[in-house]
Write a structure and sequence with these properties.
The chain is an all-alpha fold and about 325 residues long. The protein is about 70% helix and about 0% strand. α2 packs antiparallel against α7 and α2 crosses α8. The longest helix is centred in the first third of the chain and has 27 residues.
């Protein structure tokens, strides 16, 4: 692995963890409300990505879709609502687990199958998530935890919608540009109901989250993905909740509890088993001499594995 790839990957992972830390920092340490924070995050992200397209002279055709933008907005708003009361590390773990487990379940619904070892890994991941949510063990607030799980599901939808994007950076920019007016509309509605909290420092955190850890962070990740295979991409993402948990302890004074550690190990090990363990390929059917159609049937299109796409957090 080249030094450049290591740097790109490390910066991307720090950006993903940074999104959680900045959101939690803004909502815990300042008076900004979730709606205002998300408006600032999406608008600043859209501005930065639009500027990137301008500099690269790729504004003629902006990719993305309204469905993708809707899923992006749903992810962002539930993400912020969850972090109003959930520690950074716990939130990242819930988000990560929800994304990966929902992607695995989607794969099963379309006919993919898990090997016995992968099945054990999936059980470990689900078990870790259940452990984290047990009320007797100091679970996060149920409503906020539900928002974070919904955020993970929304990101899964966003990832699946964008699977066929020809230009991931362009598609991400298009989705942010479409999602920004939705966030502004919600902010305007909230403004008529109550006075939003335009906390200066909180808005700075929102600008950093949107412009740097989201906008530029995603661009760095796509650059790294050009040289990372799907398995490696999925594997390095396993570190994001861990980075976030220690970042929360360092910058927010949040405790790293025994339950969080055990649940983290169970979820990360479980998902690693699903991602890294490959099923033995089925034996190829014998093709009789002269039977070209049978040989053609073995040539199937392999799309990108879901786990490799979900790292834009």
């Amino acid at each position: 692995m080249s030094v450049k790839l290591v740097v790109l990957t490390l910066l991307s992972l720090l950006a993903f963890a940074g999104n959680s830390l900045l959101c939690r920092l803004a909502l815990k340490e300042t008076s900004i409300d979730p709606t205002t924070f998300i408006m600032v995050r999406l608008v600043s992200g859209a501005a930065v990505l639009w500027l990137v397209l301008v500099l690269q002279k790729r504004l003629r055709h902006i990719e993305g879709s309204w469905l993708g933008a809707g899923a992006l907005f749903a992810y962002a708003i539930t993400f912020a609502l969850a972090y109003a009361a959930i520690p950074a590390g716990t939130g990242a773990l819930l988000l990560f687990a929800a994304i990966q487990i929902s992607m695995i379940l989607y794969g099963l619904t379309i006919g993919e199958r898990l090997s016995p070892v992968q099945g054990i890994g999936f059980a470990f991941a689900v078990g870790g998530l259940v452990l984290l949510m047990l009320p007797s063990l100091g679970a996060p607030p149920l409503l906020n935890a539900g928002f974070m799980i919904l955020s993970g599901l929304s990101w899964s939808v966003y990832s699946l919608v964008g699977r066929k994007a020809r230009d991931p950076v362009n598609a991400t920019a298009g989705n942010f540009i479409r999602a920004a007016p939705i966030a502004l509309a919600l902010f305007a509605v909230m403004f008529t109901v109550s006075t939003p909290s335009l906390d200066g420092l909180g808005m700075v955190y929102g600008l950093l989250s949107g412009g740097i850890t989201s906008g530029l962070g995603y661009i760095l990740w796509y650059a790294a993905l050009k040289e990372l295979n799907v398995t490696h991409a999925a594997t390095v993402q396993l570190s994001v909740p861990v980075i976030t948990a220690f970042g929360g302890a360092l910058f927010l004074g949040e405790a790293i509890t025994q339950v969080l550690v055990i649940a983290s190990v169970a979820i990360v090990v479980g998902i690693a088993l699903v991602v890294l363990v490959k099923k033995k390929p089925a034996p190829a059917p014998e093709v009789e001499e002269g039977d070209e159609s049978a040989g053609d049937a073995l040539l199937v299109e392999a799309g990108p594995a879901p786990a490799g796409e979900t790292s834009e957090r």
